[in-house]
């Protein structure tokens, strides 16, 4: 293992231009098509020798065995003693887990059928409250695919700032609103407060039985019952599905409702196709694994602190937000599986935006700044609009031109006008943006995160780092007699006019 890293560290860096010149088969080897997605890793500094070293690293870190253990329902999250069974949600997992997920999906479908049959009277608005993994996934799905669905107005509210809920319900009729409370644990304070306020909003606006219009999406059904949700309107999912991996479960309820059940199933099928690719393709032709090699190369060998993702498609504008949680909450760790400190940088900071907008805002730094930022372009071949085809053409040519410009650079006598070039990018080009392809794309990212974690020997499935702040906020809110630091004490006094120390 140390040898593979040593080899990588000692390799003389070769420019992208020289790599293309010396490896004539480079484009063919480093691009592949899977599940409606075209991946191009050729504009990265992964030389043939670097890939060989990474393949050795994958071997010595047991990536294949860890992957197989995950799909078999083994305990791949040892700090919490849990399996990670998002694969089972799409039919790829231990048979008993797949059967359990299937039963949960059937229950979800029955409730959706009942809603569509107006068992709750006419439903026009879906108010989904949830945060983190209980919001980002469904929000991405509804925003990317739900534009023309026109079935329901869907609002996904996460922030505890009351302005978010107020804005969401401004144009909603409480009598035709269904409230979905999404929380794996059903204890998250922001979600519980938003849920209570949404119920109050219904009650104050003349809804006789607001609790009769509540659906719970959770892995803790007993807590939902305690909250007052009727058992028949609780859609459970398994404890072994992590929050940021949960859009495939009942957490995807607003998407299944907004897009229709067939679309939701296609989403699962697309993800399953990517699962099979990750399980079966040799690592040198395996998209999530090659992507993880790229990530590790820049984070560990070139010491890049960040990676940037630009969606060249308005429908995917929430993808960077979604990936921030997936990548940074999963792999933003400092210790390895055995508790020892990681000797290497773990997750890079994920950031990004939408093209072409970002070109006119942040790309200056990518082309001429002092930081090396590996860039990822995500685009869709088939247009998502019906306007003059010039729109989509401009969008795509800009995307491709940026990758080419980053790589080629351009010398100039005036240093202000010179582009160093040799800056890396990867491109993912979807044939079209439909539920199946989006499912495959999201599953690709999940497995890439997993492959990164395996190469680093870390656990991508826990997130203890988010707890301390929550505990302190709770203590502060409850007026606990805690002594905070002078700065915090002063902020509390200024905001609340009270001394909590
Ligand atoms: O679904 P919930 O239990 O309400 O959790 C919501 C979110 O909050 C936590 O703090 C975690 O950081 C996230 O991983 C999780 O998705």
TrEMBL record:
Protein's GO biological process: gluconeogenesis; glucose 6-phosphate metabolic process; glycolytic process
Which top-level enzyme class is recorded in the Swiss-Prot or TrEMBL entry?
isomerase
UniProt keyword annotations, A-Z: Cytoplasm, Gluconeogenesis, Glycolysis, Isomerase
Catalysed reaction(s)? alpha-D-glucose 6-phosphate = beta-D-fructose 6-phosphate
Gene3D superfamilies from the entry?
Answer: 1.10.1390.10, Glucose-6-phosphate isomerase like protein, domain 1
Q: Where is the active site?
A: 329 (proton donor), 360, 470
Per UniProt, what is one GO molecular function of this protein?
Answer: glucose-6-phosphate isomerase activity
Known EC number: 5.3.1.9
Q: What is its main location?
A: cytoplasm
> PROSITE patterns in the record, alphabetically?
P_GLUCOSE_ISOMERASE_1, P_GLUCOSE_ISOMERASE_2, P_GLUCOSE_ISOMERASE_3
Which pathway, metabolic or otherwise, does it act in?
Carbohydrate degradation; glycolysis; D-glyceraldehyde 3-phosphate and glycerone phosphate from D-glucose: step 2/4; Carbohydrate biosynthesis; gluconeogenesis
Out of the domains of life, which is the source? Bacteria
Compartments in which it is found: Cytoplasm
InterPro entries per the UniProt record, alphabetical: G6P_Isomerase (IPR001672), G6P_Isomerase_C (IPR023096), Phosphoglucose_isomerase_CS (IPR018189), SIS_dom_sf (IPR046348), SIS_PGI_1 (IPR035476), SIS_PGI_2 (IPR035482)
What are its GO cellular component terms? cytosol
Similarity annotation = Belongs to the GPI family.
Q: Report the protein's function.
A: Catalyzes the reversible isomerization of glucose-6-phosphate to fructose-6-phosphate.
Q: Write the protein's name.
A: Glucose-6-phosphate isomerase
Q: Which organism is it from?
A: Allosphingosinicella ginsenosidimutans
The gene coding this protein: pgi
């Amino acid at each position: 293992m140390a040898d593979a890293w040593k080899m990588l560290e000692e390799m003389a860096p070769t420019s992208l231009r020289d790599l293309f010149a010396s490896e004539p088969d480079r484009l063919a080897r480093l691009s592949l098509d899977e599940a409606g997605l075209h991946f191009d890793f050729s504009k990265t500094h992964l030389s043939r020798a670097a890939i060989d070293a990474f393949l050795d690293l994958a071997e010595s870190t047991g990536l294949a065995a860890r992957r197989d253990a995950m799909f078999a329902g083994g305990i791949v999250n040892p700090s919490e003693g849990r399996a990670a069974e998002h694969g089972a949600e799409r039919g790829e997992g231990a048979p008993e887990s797949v059967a359990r997920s299937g039963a949960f999906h059937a229950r979800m479908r029955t409730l959706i059928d009942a809603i569509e049959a107006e068992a709750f009277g006419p439903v026009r608005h879906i108010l989904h409250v949830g945060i983190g993994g209980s919001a980002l996934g469904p929000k991405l799905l509804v925003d990317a695919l739900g534009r023309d669905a026109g079935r329901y107005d869907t609002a996904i509210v996460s922030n505890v700032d009351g302005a978010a809920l107020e804005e969401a319900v401004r144009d909603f009729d409480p009598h035709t609103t269904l409230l979905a409370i999404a929380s794996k644990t059903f204890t998250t304070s922001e979600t519980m407060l938003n849920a209570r306020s949404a119920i109050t909003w219904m009650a104050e606006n003349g809804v006789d039985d607001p609790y009769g219009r509540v659906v719970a999406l959770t892995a803790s059904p007993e807590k939902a019952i305690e909250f007052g949700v009727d058992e028949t309107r609780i859609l459970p999912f398994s404890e072994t599905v992590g929050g940021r991996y949960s859009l495939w479960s009942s957490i995807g309820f607003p998407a299944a409702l907004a897009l229709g059940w067939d679309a939701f199933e296609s989403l699962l099928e697309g993800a399953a196709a990517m699962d099979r690719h990750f399980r079966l393709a040799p690592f040198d032709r395996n998209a999530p694994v090659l992507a993880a090699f790229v990530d590790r190369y820049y984070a560990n060998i070139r010491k890049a602190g960040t990676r940037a993702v630009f969606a060249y498609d308005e429908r995917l504008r929430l993808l960077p937000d979604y990936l921030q949680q997936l990548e940074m909450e999963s792999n933003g760790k400092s210790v390895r599986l055995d508790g020892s400190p990681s000797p290497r940088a773990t997750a890079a900071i994920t950031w990004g935006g939408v093209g072409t907008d970002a070109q006119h805002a942040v790309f200056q730094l990518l082309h001429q700044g002092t930081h090396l930022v590996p860039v990822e372009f995500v685009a869709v071949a088939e247009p998502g609009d019906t306007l003059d085809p010039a729109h989509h053409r401009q969008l795509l040519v800009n995307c491709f031109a940026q990758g080419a410009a980053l790589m080629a650079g351009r010398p100039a006598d005036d240093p202000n006008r010179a582009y160093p070039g040799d800056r890396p990018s990867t491109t993912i080009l979807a044939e079209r943006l439909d539920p199946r392809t989006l499912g495959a794309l999201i599953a690709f990212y999940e497995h890439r995160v997993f492959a990164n974690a395996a190469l680093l020997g870390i656990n991508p499935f826990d997130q203890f780092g988010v707890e301390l702040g929550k505990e302190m906020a709770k203590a502060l809110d409850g007026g606990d007699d805690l002594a905070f630091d002078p700065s915090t004490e002063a902020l509390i006094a200024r905001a609340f006019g009270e001394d909590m120390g």
